[in-house]
Specification:
Distance between the termini: 34 Å
Shape: globular
Order of helices and strands: HHHHHH
Largest sheet: none
Structural class: mainly alpha
Number of helices: 6
Number of strands: 0
Helix content: over 70%
Number of domains: 2
Length: 186
């Protein structure tokens, strides 16, 4: 088993590369109004999402799960997701309050996770958190298809996709809050 304190390993490098690539995704999607930029931005986003799956698999397989990786990986996920959804927000297909609520949930749960881990133990990944991540990824895919194919009523498709993402994200936050409050009472 490798040292759990090692910072420089392939999974952590992949996580850091996702953070570094996020502004490129944002720029390509938000400011690259040419169709080619849209294709490149969406393609890069999904490549980055693939590296998220890959880094977790490598870390477990090579026994390179580190404390640093446990922090970097979820932060990278959030940065990549926000880069994508914020770039789509600029097109005006959905209101800012949706992204704000998603951001607020992510920030609140991240801060609660930090406090919880210092006082009690590590906050486990709950089913709703995994569901939220998968719904966000599926939603990003739906939005990509709608935009790439220029589906009629594109704005409605994106609005309702983001609405579902927002609702699932908030419900996940509520489940985490309930879990923390119940475990605090024990």
């Amino acid at each position: 088993m490798k040292n759990k304190n090692d910072v420089i390993n392939l999974p952590n490098i992949l996580s850091i590369s996702r953070v570094v690539a996020s502004p490129v995704v944002f720029f390509l999607l938000a400011y690259g109004r040419h169709y080619l930029f849209l294709i490149l931005g969406i393609g890069l986003f999904f490549f980055i999402e693939f590296t998220d799956i890959l880094d977790g698999w490598i870390a477990r397989r090579r026994k390179e799960v580190t404390e640093v990786g446990k922090i970097i990986d979820p932060m990278a996920d959030k940065i990549v997701t926000f880069s994508y959804f914020f770039a789509i927000l600029i097109y005006g297909f959905y209101p800012f309050w949706m992204l704000y609520l998603i951001f607020f949930r992510e920030l609140a749960i991240t801060l609660l996770r930090m406090v919880y881990s210092k006082k009690v133990k590590t906050l486990p990944a709950l089913f709703s958190g995994k569901l939220k991540h998968n719904v966000q990824a599926a939603g990003a895919f739906i939005i990509a298809i709608v935009m790439l194919l220029k589906i009629p009523s594109m704005g409605k498709w994106i609005f309702y996709t983001m609405l579902v993402i927002t609702i699932i994200t908030l419900l996940s936050g509520i489940e985490y809050l309930i879990y923390i409050l119940r475990s605090h009472d024990e």
